[in-house]
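Dear support,

Our group has been running a series of protein-ligand predictions, and this particular one with fe (ii) ion is the one our PI (initials K.S.) wants archived with full inputs and outputs. We had some confusion internally about which version of the output was final, so please treat the block below as the authoritative record. The input we submitted was:
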Amino acid sequence: MYAQMVKTDTKRVRSLDEMEPQERAFQERIDAGQKIEPKEWMPEDYRKTLIRQISQHAHSEIVGQLPEGNWISRAPTLERKAILLAKVQDEAGHGLYLYCAAETLGISRDQMYEQLHSGKAKYSSIFNYPTLSWADIGAIGWLVDGAAIMNQVPLQRCSYGPYARAMVRICKEESFHQRQGFDIMTVLAKGTPEQKAMAQDALDRWWWPSLMMFGPSDDASVHSAQSMAWKIKQNSNDELRQKFVDQTVPQAKYLGLTVPDPALKWNEEKGGHDFGEPDWNEFFAVIAGEGPCNRERLEARRKAWNDGAWFRDGLTAHAEKQAARRQASRIAAE
Amino acid sequence: MSSEWPLWEVFIRGQHGLNHRHVGSLHAPDAEMAILNARDVYTRRNEGVSIWVVRSADIVASAPSDKGPLFDPANAKVYRHPTFFDVPDEVGHM
Ligand SMILES: [Fe+2]
Ligand SMILES: [Fe+2]
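Confirmed final output from the archive:
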């Protein structure tokens, strides 16, 4: 997902009886559906895991602007350009809400940027693929934002208050993202044969990376079990992937496009689709930095950060000067 | 590396006649920029008619551990609620 394979420091999820009183009280509050707020006591591992998860999520929103930003200056109409600009601006906002949520756990914004720019922190694998045609912008909104929604809707109920509240704001904006993407796909799919071929090509390239967004099966993962016990993860990766496939296949059918999976078949018995396995070797390579655009994405981020330094410093200097002036006139008035 | 901009808490009045409500926080070099940034981050869809920003460092908060002593006493004072009193039907609306 936007935060893939988040590790905890847990070796084994412990039962209530095995916990010290403080931790037990904490777990009981979570079990009762109460929210944990900043400054309240929490296990160190809960705090560290959340920082990893939220900052990874924030980095994904920020880096996620880059593939789409590639098409702002080349959108086919002024209206599409305005819509795409608004969408990409939303993603910047999502990053900011999430960075703020992470900061309440005791990490600074600059530390998080540093982790992103040094390559230490991860962001979603999906943003390391290139946007080759305008149809890719449609496919991203439809599939990538669609997959993000699957994951973010349940996170609105997560146990950490600031994260849950950021998710509420984000979810309100996401459905615009998905619909504008589907709208682009609809126009292309119902257009000329060339346009329809563009839409099909985009679906062919984005389908598997979108399924990989949910991460490999984690039914046997202790990290996933611990995150679920803490209610900072609500569904298994396979569950969400299944839901995504079942939701998306009829949409592709409506568009008259073919999902590029020969194994895809409706399974009456389970009431869902059977589908093929994504190429997990590709996934791990992308996560390890070897996707088609990893280097380009990080370079763009670093360049934006470094090129903006003079401007950030200028604003700081101006603020300091103004503050000093106010101070001086206050003293003079006394 | 240059120093990080301070953190500001953002409060928005959603509609005329309502209170300002805390919506989140952001970094900005000064109050003017904090308001401009808050406009972009928190009111992209007509969410507000007025913005307050306060430096996070200037907010004084009650400690989570004081929750009991501060708020529990009110639990025992049910008579503060109008539903504590029975109003006979004959009396009509009160
Ligand atoms: Fe987003
Ligand atoms: Fe989005």
